[in-house]
Amino acid sequence: MREVKKKSPSKSPAKKPAVKKPTGAKRQQFTTYSNLAKNQGKSKHAIKKDEKNRARAEYLATLPKNPVKRFFARLHPKRVFKYWFSMRGLKMIGKIVGVTLLVMALAAGALFMYFRKELDSLRPEELAKRVQTTVNKYYDRNGELLWEDKGTGTYRLVVESEQISQYMKDATVAIEDKDFHNHGGVSFTGMLRAVVNNVRGNGDVQGGSTLTQQLIKQVFFYEESGERGVKGVPRKIKEAILSVEAERIYTKDQILSMYLNESPYGGRRNGVESAAQTYFGKSAKDLTLAESALLASIPQSPTRFNPYAIAELCTGTNAETNECSLSNNSLIRRQHTVLDKMAEQGYVKQAQADEAKAVPILDTIKPEDDGMQDAKAPHFIQMVKRELTEKLGAKVVGQGGLTIKTTLDLRVQNVLEGTMNDLFNGKYAYLPRNWGADNASFTMVDNQTGQVLGVMGSRDYNYPDYGAVNSATSFIQPGSSIKPLVYAALIDNQENPNGTYGAGSIIADSPIPQNIYRTSDGTSVRNADNKFKGNIPLRQGLGESRNVPAIKAMALNGVDETMDFMRAAGNTSYCTDGADQSAGLAASIGGCGAKQVEHANAFGTIARGGVYKPDTTIIEAQNSQGKKVYEWKDEGKQVMDPQTAFIISDILTDGSARSGVFGSCAVGFCTNGIKTGTKTGTSNIGKYSKDLWMMSYTPKATLAVWAGNHVPKGLKSGDGMSLGPLVRDINTAVYKIFESDGTYKKNDWFTQPAGIQKLSVSGKNDIFPSWYNKNQKTAQTVKMTFDRISKRKATDCTPAAAREELDVIKNVDPITKQTTFTAPEGYDPNADDNVHSCSDVAPFVSVITATPLGGGRYSVSVLVRAGTHSVSEVIISLNGNSYNASQGADGDWSIVVADLNGSYDVSARAIDGGYYSGEGSQNLTFSSGGGTP
């Protein structure tokens, strides 16, 4: 081995004599001895280190001294090959691999920690909470399903694992992730393939993600799932991290069930239950093998494999195209692929797969509906949705997953629906034809709670043009059905400067001046019968539904005060629509728009003894986790005194109070076994009826019925009373249901509250509230003289015999300030006798004669001359004994008497039709023998 000379550190080193190098054996001997000399006293490690240094020095000595030449010499293939396959090269490979793995592990750890920090808010344990139903389910009060609201976007129905067919589970695993039951959430080969594909930007990854990863992506990264290329790598890493953690938290069955509940199945449908119900009309647990395979085919490309989209594409002339043939149908081909994979993986036998392939599966797909087609009580459901949004907010309702227990009783609803069908298509179809009506609405409210039991908002929700419009929540003039609340407001006002009122209080049914209530024709507003009845009790005014007393009742109480009262009682929207706000006194006779549901609940306030409870359609609502997010509370406010409510109810069930117009027990007013308070209403447009109403209530419930046209239009005929048959039929059927529930007893009625007093006012007994002031100045009973014939006030010319004195009610109208009198029925205290005149001539008795008839009998005759009026009666008296004479053919009035003997004072008194009389007398002698004729 050559020794390398070391250069002197000085610039001009001194030259030393050359040393002769040993060669051959001498050299080897020299080296050995030299090494032994050098290694003496050194450790084994130091000796190895020296050997390495010497070997490296010898290797470098073989290389050119020029740096460039040396670099390329080291890259010579022989040297490279010799190095890497030497022990030293192998050790270097090991070091490089080790360092690389360490760096990769550190990088992976750092990457994990980086993304894990970002994923703190996406906790895998929240996965089950996120995979929840997005469909809002509406039930009636007894648990009957009314409708599933799937919204306008995608929707999801979530079911438990046991509610999913095993075929569906196996088909999904077979086509989507055959190693699902073996991996820990991530397929590393699939992950690598996905990364490569994303980097290249080649579009969708096929088979790159496990079912667990797909679930994570759908739940947590749906909005990012469209990212491709390098941008998609971070998402894939996040998916992998959460997938591993999810596999640690959940069982395979739980993950598979969540996947099936979350996956898209075409169109707006998410979740296998949604798909099963939509496409096959059944639950996911009942899916067959063929159906399961078809549904499992869809999630790979929900748009492409949407059965309805394929059906739409393959209609008409397209049905004959090659693409739409059964063998080339993309969805069917994929279904067959699913079945083959199930057979290959041992989930089913090949024979079962072949049998499923033979099923004409597309022929079993149900037609697509519009969402409300199968809804029960659709108008009511729309009301629930509106109220739900008001209480919970649009975001909560829009997210879905709510289970809503509504107030509706489907049994009641079915009665209303059946009666509506009878009205327009059945036994009562003649009624709307006769009326000229094309629409109607019914509402029933539970009086104890204000909860809506049933609503028919139109003749048919699906009726063209206007069927979907809910008339029960639309503004419609209620006509006279508003009057009970007008009178209630008057009675309830205990501090009314115009006095206190009760059922027997007098309100004048007399003309109203234009300065108080202006009409278009300049004449006083009239009643339906075009008559005025003078001073009548409040009971009669309400019972007969007279307009004038109702207007005066509002005037006496104050327009604003009355409006506030009616709205507080439940008619919250009354007279609030546009020009209705300035209706004034017209509101007292239904001249404003009211909403039927609110109107029914206002009657419910009367039935609750004056306690207002808001009308409601919801009992409770739960979110997808079963937590109550809303619960109805039984809260009310006393808005009228119980005595007021009882008095109104007592009037509305009084047959005698309404008999003058409606009869005491007309159809709809009286129903066997059901005692009701009933009020009709009719609004008008010009001279024609427009809206027909009938309100009927008991302590249990209030029924409101309306009929008319879907646009303001006059009817050919009809009034509120015309609705009686409908009210009778509905009440008869519904109260049987209430009786069976134990919530109603036959003829149940209200208990009279404390404080009600019975008083005699103006000669009539009636009930009054406790605050009624007995000493207040009220109508008085006075005497008035009438003519018997004309039944009008007697005049100076009225003969004494024609006069009669009767009790009449004298009242000073606080509204018009006019004094009015009310006489007994048939008498007119405001008009004078028009039968008699001071120039009238009384009848005249001229001649009295006696003619013997033989046998001791005589005919006593009187010749009477009539005056102004015809003679109606002649009385002949003999010595004080009076006999009614009869008129003969010759015009004389005569009597036949016998057994007369001696002298008699004979007198005759003639009375005519005007109660005038004339008298005459004469002395006649009679013999007991009676004389000869």
Give the CA-CA distance, first to last residue: 206 Å
Task: Look at the helices and sheets and give the structural class.
Answer: alpha+beta
Query: For the largest beta sheet, what order do the strands appear in spatially?
Result: 2-1-5-11-12
Largest pleated sheet: 5 strands, mixed
Question: Which shape, going by the Cα principal axes?
Answer: rod-shaped
What is the average per-residue confidence, as pLDDT, rounded to a whole number? 86
Count of alpha and pi helical runs: 28
Please mark out the parts with pLDDT under 50 across 5 or more consecutive residues, or reply none: 1-19, 24-33, 202-207
CA radius of gyration is 54 Å
Range of helix content: 25-40%
Overall strand count: 31
What is the beta-strand fraction? 15-25%
Can you walk me through this structure?
With 933 residues, the protein is an alpha+beta fold. Helix 9 (211-220) crosses helix 10 (232-249), helix 9 packs across helix 11 and helix 21 (483-492) packs across helix 24. Residues 1-19, 24-33 and 202-207 have low confidence and may be disordered.
Write the layout of secondary structure elements.
Layout: H1 24-39, H2 44-61, H3 67-74, H4 77-84, H5 87-118, H6 127-130, E1 136-139, E2 145-149, E3 155-156, H7 166-176, H8 188-200, H9 211-220, H10 232-249, H11 252-262, E4 269-270, H12 272-280, H13 289-297, H14 307-313, H15 330-344, H16 350-357, H17 378-392, H18 394-399, E5 403-406, H19 410-425, H20 430-435, E6 439-446, E7 452-456, H21 483-492, E8 506-509, E9 534-537, H22 538-543, H23 547-557, H24 559-569, H25 596-607, E10 611-612, E11 618-622, E12 628-631, E13 637-638, H26 642-652, H27 655-662, E14 677-685, E15 688-697, E16 701-708, H28 724-741, E17 757-761, E18 764-768, E19 780-787, E20 792-793, E21 803-812, E22 819-822, E23 828-832, E24 844-854, E25 857-865, E26 871-878, E27 881-884, E28 886-887, E29 893-898, E30 902-912, E31 917-926
Parallel strand pairs: 1-5, 3-4, 20-23
Antiparallel strand pairs: 1-2, 5-11, 6-7, 6-16, 8-9, 10-13, 11-12, 14-15, 15-16, 17-18, 19-21, 21-22, 24-25, 25-29, 26-27, 26-30, 28-29, 30-31
